Fold:
Amino acid sequence: MKEKLIKIEDYKWKIPAETSKKMKVPAYIFATNDMIDSISKDRSILQLMNVTSLPGIQSHALVMPDVHEGYGFPIGAVAATDLNDGVISPGGIGYDINCGIRLLTTDINKNDIKNYIKKISTEIFNSVPSGVGKSGLMKLSIKELDKVLDDGCRWAEKEGYTRANDTDFIESNGHLKTADSSKVSNEAKERGRDQLGTMGAGNHFIEIDYVEKVFDKEDAKIYNLQEEQIVMLIHTGSRGLGHQVATDYIKLMTRNLKKYNIDLPDIELACAPFNSEEGKSYFSAMCAAANFAWVNRQIITYQIRNAWEKVFGKSNKVKILYDVAHNIAKIEKHTFGQNLKEVIVHRKGATRAFPPNHPEIPTIYRKVGQPVLIPGSMGTKSYVLAGQEASMIESFGSACHGAGRLLSRTAAKKNIPVDSLLNELANKGILIQTGSLKGVTEEAPQAYKNVEQVVDVVCSANIAKRIARLKPIAVIKG
Structure:
């Protein structure tokens, strides 16, 4: 596949539309030379080419430097389809609908926490259920769950799980109005009704970090960040409910491809016209699952706040800096030539990265741009970036979402000894709280790309700029 690529800039590669008969538009890859060698080892490039065959695809498809093979779309992919004549594809969102990142800030610094790190991480671990299929602290009736699915964080606000202005700092204010709980299956609801406030397993985590470096003091101040400050990252999504929504609609769309005369190079790209009954139903169900995920992260925040105040007192406040999805489809306006057009932007393992002055950014951040939250692998550093103007030209207002896997989970567990990993993390001053030591190796730093290089690509391409770098001191996992 590497021979199909044309290097057009230092960090940008092109696959011309003429490369394959099924390609409708070109594809772009943001990566270094070394990254291209790695990307070429799996099906990512072929999957990206396949994405360009979707009916109604606009302008181009692209992948970020954290790209790796996924289901249908590669993880790290972004594509926009026409709102009237295009399709929506669940494979372009993924099974964990609205998997995303939330960054919390605190009023204390690195020195304040050093004697309490074991205590606070244990409190958080005990407060936030984690692990495969783990139940939360509440079990909702289907009627109450429907309110969560329809109202998102408005429900959380009404029920007392938010604090002043929380929803101002959540993408879409934690509520997609197009959600419709009636389009979510009973099986999905049964899987989700006891999972609010839970983390899950795999690469999901809560991380206690400190701000190791600020790159722009003025912009960091607007984000309420300063060096040595303690912050926390939450990474989780819509749990079993979102997975079931994806499963249900992938099956439905696969059965109905012939009905719409859709011919695909890969059945994993199963899709339906956005304006069809199947397309509209999936979008409404996906929005409902996204609402569920935002409420999930909100209740986790509520649980973290309670644990935090138990250790540090009620005067120590935990605030939301921002919460952003990286597995979602959104209706957005983008410019094509001289025309502003509504499209469905599929982001799978890609983070929205709107530039300064965009109306969907919280008012106090508009001078800087939207916060873009990029977690590294467990044991490496994470970044806070700000979206820049080039993102609207290059990537439909999108950036990378993390470091990106190098090894599969199976390969990581097979090749990385638990003891050596724990020793390595301890030597870095990182405490691990987990219910599964074997599972920790799946998320070892060696299983991921170098986050510094990934961030360097998106910043060099002027898609985003660095605001701050975070260093972990405790990781809480399932």
Summary: The longest helix spans residues 277-312. The CA atoms of residues 183 and 285 lie 5 Å apart.
